[in-house]
Structure formats: structure tokens, C-alpha cells
Specification:
Blueprint lengths: L12 H10 L9 E4 L4 E3 L13 E4 L2 H6 L3 E2 L10 H16 L7 H7 L4 H12 L3 H18 L4 H7 L8 H9 L3 H6 L5 E9 L2 E8 L2 E8 L2 H11 L4 E4 L2 H15 L15 H11 L7 E2 H7 L6 H9 L12 E2 L12 H15 L1
Parallel strand pairs: 2-4, 5-8, 9-10
Antiparallel strand pairs: 1-2, 1-3, 5-6, 6-7
Helix pairs in contact: 3-5, 4-5, 6-7, 6-8, 13-14
Bound molecules: zinc ion (ZN).
Zinc ion (ZN) binds next to loops.
């Protein structure tokens, strides 16, 4: 249980009772209350009918209430973790399963996280920007890129990356790489990345798209700097200006950059290690107007000791604002670095806090 940071002094029972009467969610996690007559314990914000003061006992956390023989309320579920974290956890479990060698069906994945097939598919796509099938293909492609960069034999690398041992594996591997495995290893002909340049409220912006989805959103003061960064990120790709139809898609990206509260529905091509993907997905779950510390983010992905690795993954983000790495701040609340400059981070956070207040 986390300690309260907003209240320096321990709460008095009078303050606790006041919080229960007001059903104040700010006190959730700081204590629970239990009702002698029903044998049930609740979060302060529980919407159930208020008990009589004389029947109420307070506990510092739900574990103490359970130890005293109370049952957790079914309505406010004081023992369960934050629902948003629960959903992310389900996606993480699915990603772990997809990262394994063997084939797994959508039904089996949904089963493994206790959801219906339809709800699971929608959740997975919302969090990762990819269907489970495309996520697995992208994951294998990443492993294949690593193996090919270590210049293994092409056949060995394709098999080592988890592509099935069948006549179709070259085709699947090629589709995942956007080029043939041999081309990739040889650094010969390259995949194409289409891009568009546009003004936005944060300066100049570049939006790049692979055949799998939006693969980079970059910010800078000049188009030259944007194109140099794009070539640095995709050294082997053939970077080409996008079509008119693509420019229309880019408008949706710019709208989202200028107002992060507008929905973003384009498919994403998140290219990174499994760990980076985990961090970026956790970032995408932070709503506009909220910030977290690197430590809190590390805890959210279940790796509390990996604070520095989490900070590196934030710095390696290639999708400005859509993967909101600007919402991570130091533990003391001060801003830390930002890939696209501290001034832009300050501007973004200020704008988002205005909207929320
Ligand atoms: Zn309750």
C-alpha cells in the first residue's frame, strides 16, 4: 500500500469519517472503513448507503481490515488494483504469450486473461495499436532484425525469430520486415517510409508511416532537422514524401498533437524492444492533464527496480505526444528532459493542465 503524500499528518478518525460522508475519492488508498453490522470493508469513495457512525471502524489498509475478519465490498472492491492497471496487465500477459515460440489462437489469448474474444481484441488494439496477430508478426520481425544484424545465416535467423518452420516462413518474415530478409541483412534495397511535413502548435512536425502504420512523429524547428532525425531512426529505409491521401491522415495526427484529448485512431507501428513496448504502452494509458514519475511508471509495468531503463525507453520514443512521454516528470514533480526539447515539454504540460482545470 502506498503512503499518502498529500497529507503530512496521520488522519484523525474525524477526518476519515468526513471523507466517508463526502465519498471523497482522494482518500482512496489512504484508509478503508469497515462496518460491524455487515462485516464488509469499503474504500472511502464507495457509493453504497452510508453506515451509522457507531458501526464504523477504520483501518490503515485493506489487508488490516481483512485480517480483522471483514470481507471486501463487491461494489467498490477495495482489495483490487486500479482497473486501468488491470487492463494493462492483461495486455502484458497477452504480449508475453505472443512472444513465445508456439502459435496461439485469439480464443486462447482471451481465455488466458479471462475476457471475451471480442473485448480482448478491442482492448489489445486500443493499447498497442495493433491486432494480436500483427503484434506477434512485428515482435518476430524485431527479433529477426536483431538476428540479421548479428549476421546469422538468413535461414537460421528466420527460424530463431520464431517464424514457423514451413514453406510460408519466408513470405511471413518478408511481410513483417517490409522487405525480404536477405535484402534487410544485406542493407540493399530498402523498405519505404512515407512522410509528411506540417506546421503544428509546437513548431514543425514530421509524421512518417510504414506499411504497418504511423512509425514516427517528430518535432523540430526546421524541416532539415526533421528529415535528418528520420534518416537517423530508419537508416536503411527509403524515405519518400507521402501522397495527398496521406496528407489527409496527417491532419488527424496534427489535430491530436494540438489537442491530445481528441481521439487518435490511426494504426501505429511501434518499433522497439519488448521492454520499450511495455513502457510505451504504459505511457499511452496516462490521460492528458496527469503526470507520473519514472519510479511510478516502473512500478506500473511491474519492474520497480528498472527506473533507469524506463527513462531510456521514454527517451527512445519515436511518436511524440501519441506516446505521451512528456507526461513523465521527476519524483519531486519538476520536469526532466524531453527528446524534443524542455520548452516543448513545458508548453505541452501547461496546455494539458489548463484543459483539465
Ligand atoms: Zn464498498
Amino acid at each position: 500500500m502506498k503512503t499518502a503524500t498529500t497529507f503530512a499528518m496521520p488522519l484523525t478518525d474525524e477526518q476519515r469519517w468526513q471523507a466517508v460522508c463526502e465519498r471523497d475519492p482522494a482518500y482512496d488508498g489512504q484508509f478503508v472503513f469497515a462496518v460491524r453490522t455487515t462485516g464488509i470493508c469499503c474504500r472511502p469513495s464507495c457509493r453504497s448507503r452510508r453506515p451509522l457512525r457507531g458501526n464504523v471502524r477504520f483501518f490503515v489498509d485493506v489487508a488490516s481490515a481483512l485480517a480483522a475478519g471483514f470481507r471486501p465490498c463487491k461494489r467498490c472492491q477495495p482489495a483490487s488494483i486500479d482497473p486501468q492497471q488491470q487492463r494493462l496487465r492483461k495486455v502484458e500477459i497477452a504480449c508475453d504469450l505472443l512472444a513465445q515460440e508456439s502459435a496461439i489462437t485469439l480464443d486462447a489469448l482471451a481465455d488466458a486473461v479471462g475476457m471475451s474474444r471480442w473485448h480482448f481484441h478491442r482492448l489489445f488494439k486500443t493499447v498497442t495499436g495493433l491486432t494480436p496477430k500483427r503484434w506477434q508478426l512485428a515482435f518476430r520481425a524485431r527479433r529477426l532484425r536483431d538476428a540479421l544484424s548479428a549476421s546469422q545465416k538468413v535461414t537460421d535467423a528466420v527460424l530463431a525469430a520464431g517464424f514457423p518452420d514451413s514453406s510460408s516462413y519466408y513470405r511471413q518474415a518478408d511481410a513483417a520486415l517490409g522487405m525480404t530478409a536477405r535484402q534487410y541483412r544485406d542493407g540493399g534495397e530498402s523498405a519505404t517510409v512515407y512522410y509528411a511535413l506540417s506546421p503544428c502548435s509546437l513548431g514543425r512536425c514530421l509524421v512518417a508511416q510504414s506499411e504497418r502504420g504511423i512509425c514516427a512523429i517528430l518535432l523540430a524547428d526546421s524541416d532539415e532537422a526533421l528529415l535528418a532525425e528520420l534518416r537517423h531512426i530508419f537508416p536503411r529505409a527509403f524515405c519518400e514524401p507521402g501522397s495527398e491521401a496521406y496528407a489527409i491522415e496527417v491532419e488527424q495526427v496534427i489535430r491530436h498533437l494540438d489537442n491530445p484529448a481528441t481521439p487518435f485512431t490511426l494504426p501505429l507501428d511501434l518499433q522497439g524492444t519488448a521492454f520499450q513496448l511495455q513502457v510505451w504502452n504504459a505511457l499511452r494509458a496516462i490521460p492528458p492533464g496527469q503526470t507520473v514519475s519514472y519510479q511510478a511508471l516502473a512500478e506500473r509495468i511491474g519492474r520497480p527496480a528498472a527506473v533507469r531503463a524506463v527513462a531510456s525507453a521514454c527517451a527512445a520514443n519515436k511518436l511524440a505526444i501519441v506516446v505521451p512521454c512528456h507526461r513523465v516528470v521527476r519524483a519531486d514533480g519538476t520536469r526532466s528532459g524531453y527528446r524534443w526539447g524542455p520548452a516543448r515539454k513545458a508548453q505541452l504540460l501547461m496546455k494539458e493542465s489548463d484543459k483539465e482545470s
